[in-house]
């Protein structure tokens, strides 16, 4: 895939590299997740908070953590902004190891922030630790320490190992192993874990993601920051942002939240995640996303969702369920992605999944009608062939469609007012 092809009009491609970590028996026990600007990039931007945010968003909402790591421990690089609480970590402590980069200046604020994270249940790793590098105050707080086997001399490696062994709880990871000789040295020095190109190079995973509506998120942050949060307003704002809706659905899966329930509407998603967790995700996504939504494509997705919602009233399908169904159906078409593949790992109500993947039932009929009506290349089913058409004649369907367009345009105009 060329770099030009990696920025499709209907979204952008997110790349996350995974490099395995092995134990002394050669069993892969963990993986480090790294941001890649391109699928062919050999290196990662390790110091930028925006890159870190994109890894977190991609790992937990674009790919699905279970798909990326297969249940193994994930190491994620963090920058100072995350360690000191300026940027949020919208996941629980048992989902990733927080890796503190060697470029992070350790001061009182970092020590206090890391202490709080550990007290909250997060696991910490120190990256490329060297004796005298200034990260010694974090050794009592860390669980893992990674030592560079590429650029450090053998005396430097031995000195770092000796210092870490003064803290009996630490597990040592030999990283940047690029030669058999370095691997043998790490074994002799008693390292517990091993990582490097001699064992396995980073493997890049890529996925297409819908470009976000930043203005919606700014509005949502304002709504979420109110002293008396209006749940109806939050639900409405989430529903106006197709990318955010899909990401929040993915964030409700068991791998990312520990919850075991299904959802069938935007309101269910908001209630399940809770306002605080949504506030964290919205903040992180504003940092993570680099491109603006294409207004025409965003409008088309939202019109389809609103159109399905209007049609649902005639066949007894709940409007909010039809809205999320129309939203997901339109996103699948936008990405040219089979619905069953896109819906993997989403904690959706089975009846909603069935309607989206098989087209069965009243909801499936509503979604098919909305799709056929709005797709120029699709042939509209004969009048009355679908339940949605039995209660909505041709004129009323046109009115429903125009109403959906009008409502969506009003929403987008309100969001861009004054900008």
From TrEMBL:
InterPro entries, alphabetized: dGMP_Pdiesterase_EAL/HD-GYP (IPR014408), EAL_dom (IPR001633), EAL_sf (IPR035919), HDOD (IPR013976), RNase_Y/CdgJ (IPR052340)
Residue intervals passing through the bilayer: none
Family annotation (PROSITE patterns): EAL, HDOD
Pfam annotation, one family: HDOD
SUPFAM superfamilies: EAL domain-like, HD-domain/PDEase-like
Residue ranges occupied by any EAL domain in the UniProt entry: 1-216
Chain ranges of the HDOD domain: 210-394
Name of this chain's protein: HDOD domain-containing protein
Species of provenance: Dactylosporangium aurantiacum
């Amino acid at each position: 895939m060329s770099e030009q092809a990696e920025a499709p009009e209907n979204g952008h491609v997110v790349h996350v590299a995974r490099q395995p970590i092995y134990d002394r028996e050669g069993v892969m026990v963990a993986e480090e997740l790294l941001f890649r600007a391109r699928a062919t990039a050999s290196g990662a931007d390790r110091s930028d908070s925006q890159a870190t945010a994109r890894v977190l968003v991609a790992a937990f909402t674009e790919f699905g953590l279970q798909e990326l790591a297969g249940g193994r421990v994930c190491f994620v690089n963090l920058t100072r902004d995350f360690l000191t609480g300026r940027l949020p970590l919208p996941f629980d402590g048992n989902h990733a190891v927080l890796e503190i980069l060697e470029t992070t200046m350790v001061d009182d604020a970092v020590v206090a922030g890391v202490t709080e994270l550990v007290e909250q249940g997060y696991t910490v790793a120190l990256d490329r630790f060297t004796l005298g590098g200034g990260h010694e105050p974090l050794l009592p707080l860390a669980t893992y320490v990674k030592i560079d086997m590429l650029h450090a001399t053998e005396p430097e490696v031995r000195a770092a190992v000796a210092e870490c062994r003064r803290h009996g709880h630490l597990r040592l990871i030999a990283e940047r192993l690029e030669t058999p000789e370095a691997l043998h040295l790490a074994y002799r020095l008693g390292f517990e874990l091993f990582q490097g190109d001699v064992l396995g190079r980073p493997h890049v995973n890529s996925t297409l993601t819908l470009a976000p509506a930043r203005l919606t998120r700014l509005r949502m942050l304002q709504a979420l920051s109110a002293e008396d949060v209006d749940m109806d307003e939050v639900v409405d704002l989430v529903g106006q942002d197709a990318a955010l809706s899909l990401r929040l659905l993915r964030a409700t899966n068991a791998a990312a939240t520990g919850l075991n329930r299904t959802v069938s509407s935007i309101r269910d998603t908001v209630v399940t995640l809770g306002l605080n967790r949504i506030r964290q995700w919205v903040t992180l996504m504003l940092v993570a996303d680099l491109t603006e939504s294409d207004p025409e494509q965003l409008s088309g997705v939202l019109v389809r969702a609103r159109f399905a919602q209007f049609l649902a009233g005639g066949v007894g399908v709940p409007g909010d369920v039809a809205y999320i169904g129309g939203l997901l159906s339109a996103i699948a078409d936008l990405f040219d992605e089979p619905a069953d593949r896109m819906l993997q790992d989403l904690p959706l109500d089975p009846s909603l999944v069935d309607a989206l993947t098989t087209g069965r039932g009243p909801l499936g009929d509503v979604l098919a009608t909305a799709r056929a009506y709005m797709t120029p290349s699709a042939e509209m089913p004969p009048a009355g062939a679908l339940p949605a058409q039995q209660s909505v004649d041709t004129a009323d369907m046109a009115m429903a469609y125009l109403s959906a367009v009008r409502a969506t345009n009003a929403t987008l105009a309100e969001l861009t007012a004054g900008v």
